[in-house]
Design goal:
single chain; 145 residues; alpha+beta; five-stranded antiparallel sheet; 3 helices; 28% strand; globular
C-alpha cells in the first residue's frame, strides 16, 4: 500500500509555500502536455535535470493511473514548492488506494508506482470524501540550493 500523509522515507512533507494547480480531464494523449508543463515549472523554480526528470516520470505515472484505473478522468494536478523540495499531488475520484508491490519483472506493466517510490523522497496517498490524493516529493537538487 502507498503510505499516508505522514509516511515516507523522509517523514511528513511540510505545508506548501508556492503552488500551481490544474483541473484536468486525463487522457493518454495529453499526458506529455502535463509532463512538459510541470517540468518547465520545476525548472523555473530551480529544479535540476534529475528533479525535472523524476517529476515528469511521476506525472506520467499518476495521470496514466487515472486513465487506466479511476473510472472518471476528471482530476486535479498540483505542484507545490516547499523549501528545497517539490511535492506533486494528484486528486482523482476513485476511492481505491493504490498498492505498491515489488513488480513482476516479466509483466508488461505494474512497475510505475514502485519505481516512483524508489526514485523519490516520499510517496503517499490520502483518502478524502470524494476520492484520494496520491502524492510524491522530490528534492530540487543542486539547482534549488
Amino acid at each position: 500500500m502507498v503510505g499516508t500523509e505522514s509516511v515516507g522515507r523522509r517523514g511528513r512533507v511540510p505545508h506548501p509555500r508556492a503552488a500551481s494547480g490544474w483541473d484536468i480531464t486525463a487522457s493518454a494523449g495529453d499526458i506529455e502536455r502535463w509532463r512538459d508543463e510541470a517540468g518547465r515549472l520545476v525548472r523555473g523554480r530551480g529544479g535540476d535535470a534529475d528533479a525535472v526528470g523524476v517529476i515528469r516520470l511521476g506525472i506520467s505515472e499518476l495521470l496514466s493511473n487515472v486513465v487506466k484505473h479511476a473510472g472518471d478522468p476528471r482530476c486535479r494536478l498540483e505542484v507545490h514548492h516547499v523549501g528545497a523540495t517539490v511535492r506533486v499531488r494528484l486528486f482523482d475520484r476513485c476511492a481505491r488506494v493504490p498498492v505498491v508491490t515489488v513488480p513482476d519483472w516479466d509483466a508488461e506493466g505494474g512497475r510505475g508506482l514502485w519505481l516512483l517510490r524508489e526514485m523519490t523522497g516520499a510517496l503517499g496517498c490520502t483518502r478524502v470524501p470524494d476520492g484520494k490524493w496520491v502524492w510524491f516529493a522530490v528534492p530540487l537538487g543542486d539547482g534549488g540550493s
